[in-house]
Amino acid sequence: MAWYDEAVFYHIYPLGLLGAPKENKYDGITHRLPELNPWVDHIKAIGCNAIYIGPLFESEGHGYETTDYKKLDSRLGDNNDLKKFVKLCHKSGVRVIFDGVFNHTGRSFFAFKDLKEHREGSRYRDWYCNVNFYGNNEYNDGFSYDNWGGYNLLVKLNQRNPEVRDYICDVIRFWISEFDVDGIRLDAADVLDFDFMKALRATANEVKPEFWLMGEVIHGDYTRWVNEGTLHSVTNYNLHKALYSGHNDHNYFEIAHTVKRLYDMGGSRPDGLKLYNFTDNHDVERIYTRLNNKAHLTPVNILLYTLPGIPSVYYGSEFGIEGKKENHSDASLRPALNLNDFKDAIKSNPVTALTARLGMIRQNTPALSYGDYRELRLTNRQYAFARKSGNGFCAVAVNNDDNPCPMSLPVEGGGSYTGLISGNKVAVENGQINITVEGNSGDIWVPTESIGDMKLTKSVKAIRSSKQTVSTVSGMASDAAAVKAPEEAPGAADTKTPEQAQDNAPESINVPGTPAPEKQAPTGSTDTPSGSYEDGIIKGLQEAVLARMEKNGPITDQMRRDVENNVYHDSLINWIKSF
Known about the structure:
The protein has helices at residues 14-17, 37-45, 79-91, 110-118, 162-179, 194-207, 237-248, 252-265, 287-290, 297-306, 345-348, 350-364, 366-370, 480-483, 533-550, 557-565; strands at residues 9-12, 50-53, 57-59, 66-72, 95-100, 104-105, 147-148, 151-156, 183-186, 212-215, 233-234, 276-278, 310-314, 372-378, 382-389, 392-399, 405-410, 416-419, 425-427, 432-437, 441-447. The strands form five sheets. The protein has an eight-stranded parallel sheet with strand order 11-10-9-5-2-1-13-12. The chain has a six-stranded antiparallel sheet with strand order 14-15-16-21-18-19. A three-stranded antiparallel sheet has the order 6-8-7, with no helix packed on it. It is an alpha/beta fold. The chain is built from 16 helices and 21 strands.
């Protein structure tokens, strides 16, 4: 058992959250990072015990064009600011992992500047891939080179060069000695050299006990990256796509099929591959924006916290804020937020309250971290499964229909079970519990005797359902200054008047969704969504690749065709065959 086996992550894109300028003018240091200190208490309050933060180090713009791996971006502060932040997190019992952008550097990185100056005579000419002094580019360098995603501002490092490998391994050692970081998320891991990643893993094993390596991987057989010799985990883009489309299409078969396929990849591991699960991040649209029926946010979040893997919350999504890609820009996905605008969110915002409840449940229910997975019930609109580890057991049931649905679920032991979200208690009869799952909701059922000190008396209001309007669920999130990215024009997020909190809310946890205004199919309907599962998952993964590319500039028609036809990027070779 390692700390990351029980982790619940909070993901921060610091340049966005702290409102840093989009372009680094290298004109001095602005100490923005200390503004994150109050967020540590908030992160703890919603049940997270680990932070993934990045990119952090000196760069030219969005952070992924690194110019100095050993210096905090001057728009955020200096190295002392970062030392203090990590120390504060550790004092609060929160682990910290950094973004490691090791596939490419920015054009102002020392090795590339030397290459531009000395050309064929540069000692760093072999630090980069396929440098061709008979070529040229849009910068008129007088030579060409490999890049990431078709963008020459991201110069691809030659990871098979021992000097490059040793340099990056020294960077990892420096981050640990200087900042005491607990792990690294490897950017663009799906195009990193495998021997290079094995060298990083060897360094991780050497420098700090339980140092965690997680890679950004879009598609494919995740076991190529997640194994004893390479990485501990990768981003679960397969589940990310299934979570929103499986609800939008009323198709729990897509989610269950994805879970089973990924779980089976884990082989003999009862808890699966421990993939990094998320509903949104800095590259894809917010889950609240993605969902056609906003009430589905409840079952989506319940699944995020209960399915095999490590759950992660992207900053702001615990408040139910919007974030939509517009004009080839990720700005609305990475807004500046003021925590004071959300100071009462756990009490008054149903999304935040549910997030906090799920965080507490996750940390007090070992079966969710270590348990195996067994499907109990599956229809288009209802889904139930069990997690079991040692003596721990829980049953999870979700419902994406607007109407309540009765279920009979097989459980272990006798006595009674309690729903950790609803607070309801039911008796075990003939090895089963008979429950009713409210519309657009769900619950986590555990033996009543196992609850221990968990408190089940906080109030949570309903997450409202509407397919006709796009509304937030908290008045705090409707503050334009809170949800728009800095220097962005109005309109990045469509925020309407929220549902007001009710003073006479019940004391027990209850997060049902109210029926949508239009007519819905009856409970248990076996309606089949258009398109096959394979078509849907491929389309979703292609969207994820395009999302990663978009953060560096506009997507051309040719780039889009390249992704769709699987002919351009190395990471897309055998795209279809990977399924």
